[in-house]
Amino acid sequence: MADFQLHITGTLGLLLGACLAAGVFADVLHLPKVTAYLLVGLLVGPSLLDWVPQEHLEHFDPMLKLAMAVVLFNLGCEFTFTKFRRIAGHCLVLSAAEICATFGLVLVGLLMFGCGGSMALLLACLAVATAPATTILVLKEFRSEGPVTESTGFLVAMNNFACIVLFELGFLAIQLTQGQLETPLWMQVGNVLMSIAGSIALGVLGGVVVSYGCGLLNIKRWLVLLVATATFLLGVNESLQVPYMLTFFVMGVTVANTSDSKSKIGDELDHLSGLLAVLFFAVHGTELDLHAFLAAGTLGAVYVVFRIAGKWSGVYFAARLTRQSLEMRHWLGSCLFAQAGAAIALSTIAVSRNPTLGKPVQDIILGSVVLFEIIGPLFIRKSLLETGEVPLAQAINHASRTPMEQVRSVGDRFRSAVWGNATPSGAMNGVSVNKLVRKTKGIHQSARFDDVIDHIEHSNDNTYPVVNDKMGVVGVIRYPLLSDVMFDLSASQLVRAEDLVSETNVVLYPDDPASRAFELFQAETDDCIPVVTSTQPHELLGVVRRSDIVHALITQRRKKK
């Protein structure tokens, strides 16, 4: 027994089991599960309990890259060209400002505190990156929807693309100033551009294969096709040493624009991505180094502070300049703090190219990642709640029952089975409407038809509340009537929102039980119901969606099992 060494399969089981327990504690403490998985990895890793052998972690590397690839593929699948053009119209300025502010503030801040120019330049390039897996999976966990959620996905993609390009150009600049270029500058720049072009080409090829294959094959075989394509492309990227993250994002974009089944393809991948995500964050947590965090010292603290300042201020001032909503100004930047995979991978490349320069850069990155990966999901959660793009009930996972409560639950289920009197509303008596509200300002009754269309493009509903100057609900616009006007170009030039309104007396109040919403939806065909203040004048607060009510019902019933 003294020579006992845990086999790698035992390590896998240990990590997954620990994450299962972490998920329970995340429910109790109202933490994002991503944070819980990272903390569990940190606990069992070398920094604390040291239960996981380092050599085992290295064998998980292909699975971790596959997990990242799947996340980026799913992110790319959200961007049809139509949606990309719409989002890019107001996000390109935000993205450019955030990238420049982050790069500039980190560079100047580090130089002010005595950091060498080459080291400050590399750290400024790496500061641009935002962890795609952490950010996107938190958004997915909370089922958030809205302009901040959409913009976050766009900015995450742009950040990582910009980080890769800036890192390569920054390294070229350092080699040029130090006289270390072994080949002409134009050839080095050409190699960088060829690497990026090759990565994009592989992504397009993979996306076409998936779209074509899923159109031919039975849906039961899609998962095999997806895994085969992803793993093969990942291997090709590694062999050619081109950035695989860009490949899989482009692959997702290609599928989004060449397949009618992108949502079903995403559903198939969910069967695999959930498990891979748990393993990704658990192993990633074991790699977090508390000693590196403490050893980063003053420069590490400067890097953390100025990176946060750059992300937030860049978005804030650009959104203010372009007159975007207060939610975009104040909360979009907070969704971009997480940092991990891309920065760590590039810092490792820096060490392999120039150990003297790369090692202190890697130490600061590894040290700061401990903080960014823990606070990043928390800031995302806070931002989503403040913008109303996720209902409160969605972000608060209620704790499991005590043993005695579970005994009563078993008895209740038995009585329901015998008498057949189980009602959906009974499962939801503990949930109120204010925990299911998705905030919206509605459409003003004087809005032009083009403004109505713009509102609809940012919404996933088919029923839209219309308000007056006092934010009172005067009615709703329903999609069938709207679609009739859209095809009449002459009429659409004259139409205002109030011309499209259908009267409705169906509203909810914040203190109403969710069972009341369930009852109303049984008698309504609309997919959402306006929620107004309880006191006069009844001002619009947001809407409750039928899908959120159903999701809350399913969640409550599962907790009773």
TrEMBL record:
Keywords of the record: CBS domain, Membrane, Transmembrane, Transmembrane helix
Predominant subcellular localization, coarse grouping: membrane
Name this protein carries in UniProt: Putative voltage-gated ClC-type chloride channel ClcB
Cross-referenced InterPro entries: Cation/H_exchanger_TM, CBS_dom, CBS_dom_sf, Na+/solute_symporter_sf
Gene Ontology cellular component annotations, sorted alphabetically: membrane
Molecular function, one GO term: antiporter activity
Species this chain originates from: Rosistilla oblonga
Keyword Transmembrane helix listed: yes
Subcellular location: Membrane
Membrane topology label: Multi-pass membrane protein
Domain CBS: 501-560
The organism's taxonomic lineage, starting at the top: Bacteria, Pseudomonadati, Planctomycetota, Planctomycetia, Pirellulales
Pfam families according to UniProt: CBS (PF00571), Na_H_Exchanger (PF00999)
Gene Ontology biological process terms from the UniProt entry: proton transmembrane transport
Superkingdom in the source lineage: Bacteria
